[in-house]
Amino acid sequence: MLRLHDLVPPAGARRKRKRVARGVGGKGGKTAGRGTKGSRARGTVPVWYEGGQLPLQVRVPKSKGFTNPFRVEYQPVNLDTLEESGLDEVTPETLQAQGLISRGSASRPAMVKVLGRGQITRAISLKAHAVSTSAREAIEAAGGSIEMLPPAFGGPRPPARGNQHTNR
């Protein structure tokens, strides 16, 4: 049985640190790997010190949060809007034809989410990318049907928008 006091690291895993500045007789003597002259050769200088130049943490403005480049954006449509539209077959195309949602763009096609504000009194056939729980209950209570559409970007997440500099 293996005991705690029997545990040893494998051979070569622990190496002794290199002892520098111990005279010119061995490796690492004289300048001890610090080069010649200058403040870095003589004393300890903070890693962030840039020789009197305005330091990076002062040059770059403070970051206020960040923007998720993979955010999924939906165009909201409420139940009261669907009631007023008079549509029996509700799809992103019919909503766009009525001017209730915008077309979106090639990189960000229009994705519709139906929200539960208002009442619906008639049965509708709904095809949307997302539906809130309250909207789903109201549509099913009115005798309607819901079909969920796949994401318009065709993958597990949308393509990244922006870059490392705009992502803040």
Helix and strand arrangement:
Elements: H1 39-42, H2 56-59, E1 75-78, H3 79-85, E2 89-90, H4 92-97, E3 112-115, E4 125-128, E5 130-131, H5 133-141, E6 145-148
Parallel strand pairs: 1-3, 2-4, 3-5, 4-6
- In the predicted model, the low-confidence regions spanning at least 5 consecutive residues are none
Backbone shape: elongated
Strand order, main sheet: write it out: 1-3-5
Helix content: 10-25%
Radius of gyration: 32 Å
| Strands, count | 6
- Report the β-strand fraction as a percent range: 5-15%
Order of helices and strands: HHEHEHEEEHE
Let me know the largest β-sheet.
3 strands, parallel
Could you characterize what this model shows?
The chain has 168 residues and is of the alpha/beta class. It contains five helices and six strands; from the N terminus they run ααβαβαβββαβ. It has helices spanning 39-42, 56-59, 79-85, 92-97, 133-141, and strands spanning 75-78, 89-90, 112-115, 125-128, 130-131, 145-148. It has a three-stranded parallel sheet with strand order 1-3-5. It is elongated.
Task: Note the main attributes of this structure.
168 residues; three-stranded parallel beta sheet; 18% helix
In short:
The protein has 168 residues and is an alpha/beta fold. The chain is 18% helix and 12% strand. It has helices at 39-42, 56-59, 79-85, 92-97, 133-141; strands at residues 75-78, 89-90, 112-115, 125-128, 130-131, 145-148.
